[in-house]
Protein 1
Amino acid sequence: RIGTAALAVQVVGSNWPKPHYTLLVTGLCRFQVLQLLKEKPYPIAEVQQLDRLEQFTNGHKSEEELGELSEQFYKYAVQLVEMLDMSVPAVAKLRRLLDNLPREALPDILTSIIRTSNQEKLQILDAVRLEERFKMTIPLLVRQIEGLKLLQKTRKSKQDDDKRVVAIRPNRRINHGSITEDEEEEEDHDDVVMLEKKIRTSSMSEQALKVCLKEIKRLKKMPQSMPEYALTRNYLELMVELPWNKSTKDRLEIRAARIVLDNDHYAMEKLKKRVLEYLAVRQLKNNLKGPILCFVGPPGVGKTSVGRSIAKTLGREFHRIALGGVCDQSDIRGHRRTYVGSMPGRIINGLKTVGVNNPVFLLDEVDKLAKSLQGDPAAALLEVLDPEQNHSFTDHYLNVAFDLSQVLFIATANTTATIPPALLDRMEVIQVPGYTQEEKIEIAHRHLIPKQLELHGLTPQQIQIPQVTTLGIITRYTREAGVRALDRKLGAICRAVAVKVAEGQHKEAKPDRAEVGEGEDCKEHVTEDAKPESISDTADLALPPEMPILIDFHALKDILGPPMYDMEVSERLNQPGVAIGLAWTPLGGEIMFVEASRMDGEGQLTLTGQLGDVMKESAHLAISWLRSNAKRYQLTNASGSFDLLDNTDIHLHFPAGAVTKDGPSAGVTIVTCLASLFSGRLVCSDVAMTGEITLRGLVLPVGGIKDKVLAAHRAGLKRVIIPQRNEKDLEEIAAHVRQELTFVLAACLDEVLNAAFDGGFAVKASLEHLNSKL
Ligand code: ADP
């Protein structure tokens, strides 16, 4: 219960990579704890000052005995100090202090300087009586002197050096030569020595070892209070921790890998096949040189989770490095150590975290790397990913090469468009398209629901989510290519049910609830006259919870609120000048309503909806084609003239104006929309289209067909017009989706228009109709 009161003079250190602080204090006096007042957040106690008081300095009972003791002590102290190198200023100062300071202060000072264990120091601290303190310190002094003598004998040649070190850091180096068992134990407490030991026993490369030994030599001579001390120490600790030679053993068995992949993921056949091929080649070739796999697809389609499964099949550690928004190359390659707050890059950091040198690194979102004044992170990644170079990857912080050739890199991206070309060149892109509704239902029931139940501590005996409900969530509460929002909604349902289960307040289910059959169309269940019953009804609290709680549409509405998406297609297509296009975005396919209107004017075309240049060109192309074919199709402006822009302005709008859209694939949609506007006829409400157009009226192929078709299917459309040359892409689409849709393969715009309008768009058919309008 005895301590030292002190005044903090200086605090130095940093929080990274580990908090390491050096506190410089001036000791004031001993005190004794009388009563502990508070322990948290830090102890507060009532204390009593013990020394530096009159009675201790003057009023000694046995002056003589003490005088003798202090004289003896003084002699030993002088002997000790004189054994050190007097040319070092600190030693000379210490010598002067011995004469100048009151004798009573000497035991405390010398104990702090000589080599003693913590326990011995504490004993001296506890010795409140001066006499006792002198008595306890003298043996320590003698021990130290003997040790020094031995040291001088054994290391004569290096004497001078040692003395200097002793003078600067006496408590660390004095007595180094005398190795008794006791001291060896003490040495373990000395972290720098420990660190040195660790460095020597670690399996780092020769080059790294050389650098580390040099640094530790510097560290030993550095006073702890120097800011650089903490930096150097952190550096050395990182070097020791890095897995220079530590790796996990690969246990690759293709058959087992197939089972793991199949168990973890439903569908994604193409991706799984390619991953297995990749792993099989690795198994046969036994080295990792080869293209880096890059999974490209909308969010939430399982790219990251496949990466994790690959690590699992190989028995390797997995580490994800999020690259979204990284715009500084130091993020990848680290800061030089001269910087304040310098640190290694994410690659080296990742290796430190996993602790082995052959993990699976998932470079997430490589398409979202940005450039800035701080350099191009993509260029730094090139070195990391290139198998020819990465065996000697040099992080700026480490400043020595680290072998990355055993690391298995996998990248993910939403689109290849924004991946820097040089990086893309090193990767093999595997497209991961969005899921169909049926696939989503299967994924939900096989993977997501069991996972959510476990997360919320529920069992299948407590909650039952029929497939028709899942379909309802998919169509009415989410609109996405992946399953992430679906997963969140299922989480919300589980939370709500968990509350009910915990409260035991579930209302007994009414018999008609059980009628919610699987496989029936969800729309039938949300009829207005359905009885409003829900799991949030608390009217009948007395009844015990009815297990399992069935999630039907009313429950859905209670938990998730009113449906967010409605089938709006037919409502929006009830007037001329609207057509449905199919767009591809990094988030998956989408349907897009293109609207057109005309008004009196001077032949101007206005385009709104944040369009890119290519899209604007498509609009001009479409108008030019229509103008040149106006007579053939009997298209006229408001005053009956075949010159469509005569006294007429046209406004084309692509809704969702906040999202930038670009690409040529809206060409056919614009033509159809304008043809509808000028003919006054309605476009069929169940048809969507995509395709690039030429001035001559040809329809050229476009990309992203699978995602676009899935979007049309999600939106409940029945017919899809695609360019004829995209026919091959249809093979990728699941058979049941293909069955539910009719595909029109168009080679020219005539065919598009014929398919888009009920009864076709032939010249004769429209002539009558138009005349009646005019
Ligand atoms: P991404 O990386 O493509 O954005 P994630 O890998 O994070 O997506 O996937 C989101 C969630 O969806 C994960 O919990 C994952 O397990 C689940 N998931 C996605 N696709 C599948 C699938 N085919 N089978 C099972 N679960 C899937």
Protein 2
Amino acid sequence: MTKAPDTSRDHLSEDELLALLDPELLPRHIAIIMDGNGRWAELRRLPRIAGHAEGIKSVREIITLCRDLDIGALTIYAFSQENWKRPANEINALMLLLENYLQTEMNELTRKGARFRAIGRVDTLPSGALSWVRRVERETAHLDKLMLNVALSYGGRSEIVDAVRRLAEDVQAGRVQSESIDEAFLEGYLSTHGLPDPDLLIRTSGETRISNFLLWQLAYTEMFFTPTLWPDFRRREALLALLDYQKRERRFGQVPDAASQGGR
Ligand code: IPE
Ligand code: IPE
Ligand code: MG
């Protein structure tokens, strides 16, 4: 059965929504599957790339909101390994858009104190986009207000494969004893190492699947699915997602009382 949309807060302004948020219960890390750009464009009889371009405005707003709310980490899914199967013209346009975004946004990210990092098999990106990725990573490496991970040519399974491969090399070289491998140790080989797991995953566009995103890290993440298409997902929508998140009871497998003491 589909849940009826919660319209009880439709009349509230953004400031009123903001005031409803409990600052003690904000997620420390948000992950987002930014989906629905193509459909946004198709609805307006525009080329799909117009939807991707509009989606960048949402990216900007969400980064600003995370910074304003002191949410320390944001991981956004921009291009999956599976997305290489799309038509060449869409891929090329997306890569140009990425390059353009990094070029024009580097100063803004710096001003916001955001440290940019690409996760995924980034070396497979075309050289123009790749050199901007590396440049913005270098230029923002000293910033720590917001950790901004952008998943590019990313797949959750290959991230685990890559981690296991490097771990196996370390074992073979005698740097690691296999008995010392536990969950925390393996986590150290993942691209998100050192960050808390996402507390909240948002997926736009009505799809309710993970699409090979952060398979390890999402083990106990709260999921928020919305029919809103990514280019329409702005500050207000994000505030509603955060309010929904704050209603959740996170149990981590425990009974309710114990979880409220040992949870977030
Ligand atoms: C998400 O939007 C962005 C990328 C995957 C690059 P889509 O391009 O998947 O948009 P829809 O799902 O076709 O509407
Ligand atoms: C997931 O969206 C990847 C990104 C948002 C970058 P897709 O549109 O590629 O996912 P599927 O194909 O609907 O699962
Ligand atoms: Mg899609």
